[in-house]
Design a protein that fits this description.
alpha+beta, Rossmann fold, 2 domains, 29% helix
């Protein structure tokens, strides 16, 4: 099922004329020019809007109107999801509730062909479960999460040492999840982070985490779990730049509501594709703006992407 969905995803790009073939003799190089956006639309009462067509949307890249060549109101593409749990001391009183709500969320949102992984971060970044569709494996991984637990499970492999210099490695965790784990995945990709967004130990910067998500077409949602509100500016910047949502969580009831809202975001998405009028392969960052013709509607999608560089 997942393979068929991914093949369909690639066929859409081919039919749209989004593939160019150029290579030295004896080699084939495929360059994908089609830009795909996954968008959620809400009305002024915050309700999900369904039944729209491509004519309801306008897409701009660096201020230039783009022609929508592909559109789907049914997100049949597989979902690859990363659950990141902050296990630093600041989450001590909420972690148990986070684990219970996280398991219920996966039960609601994962469908046949979808995959998920579970990571924790504090002074280390640990991969508790690699990508799988086995709910039992995912539930057991979530239940193993402990506050400031010593490393002993699978460590997320990447350019960073598994053990930081102390503090909470929030930015490192997002970077590793996007750059190391999601970069080779196709279809819809999302990271759900439960944290207060206060980073005190990462070797990388917030901009590095954002860029890793943007380059891998990964949407980051942050459930800001903090009695004092956490670092809202960091959480909002990370989610805004990647097309995700920040939701402030102050108690268990808020946590369930937040997971319900993210579940809606993932279940009801429009797929919008266009071939950029800017054909340059210069590796530059291109700003995207999606507008609704009905001004009572608001759209949530990513704000840009990096062009190919070759």
């Amino acid at each position: 099922m997942r393979i068929r969905a991914i093949v369909s995803y690639l066929c859409v790009a081919i039919l749209a004329g989004g593939l160019a073939f150029a290579a030295p003799p004896g080699q084939i190089r495929v360059e994908v020019n089609l830009v795909n956006l996954f968008a959620t639309v809400r009305d002024k009462h915050k309700g999900i809007v369904t039944g729209l067509t491509k004519d309801d949307f306008q897409v701009y890249e660096d201020g230039q109107l783009q022609e929508i060549t592909n559109f789907s109101a049914d997100s049949t593409l597989p979902l690859t999801l990363g659950i990141l749990l902050d296990t630093s001391g600041s989450e001590y009183f909420m972690l148990s509730s986070e684990k219970e709500a996280g398991s219920r969320f996966l039960a609601r949102v994962l469908r046949k062909g979808d995959l998920s992984m579970v990571m924790t971060f504090d002074t280390d970044v640990d991969l508790l479960a690699d990508f799988t569709d086995d709910r039992g494996v995912l539930d057991r991984a979530i239940n193993r999460a402990q506050i400031n637990a010593p490393s002993g499970g699978m460590i997320a492999q990447g350019p960073l040492p598994s053990s930081g210099g102390g503090g909470t490695n929030f930015y490192d965790a997002v970077y590793l999840a996007a750059h190391d784990k999601l970069s080779d995945e196709a279809g819809r990709k999302a990271i759900i982070v439960l944290t207060d967004a206060e980073d005190t130990g990462s070797k990388l910067r917030l901009t590095d985490a954002i860029e890793a998500a943007q380059r891998t077409d990964t949407v980051v949602h942050v459930l800001l779990v903090a009695a004092d509100g956490g670092d809202q500016s960091v959480a909002r910047r990370l989610t805004d730049e990647t097309g995700g949502r920040m939701i402030i969580v102050r108690n268990e009831k808020n946590l369930e509501q937040a997971f319900d809202e993210i579940s809606e975001e993932l279940r009801f998405q429009y797929t919008i594709g266009y071939i950029p009028t800017n054909k340059k392969h210069d590796g530059s960052y291109r700003k995207i703006k999606v507008e609704m013709k009905n001004k009572d509607y608001s759209v949530l999608t990513r704000r840009g992407y990096y062009a190919p560089n070759n």
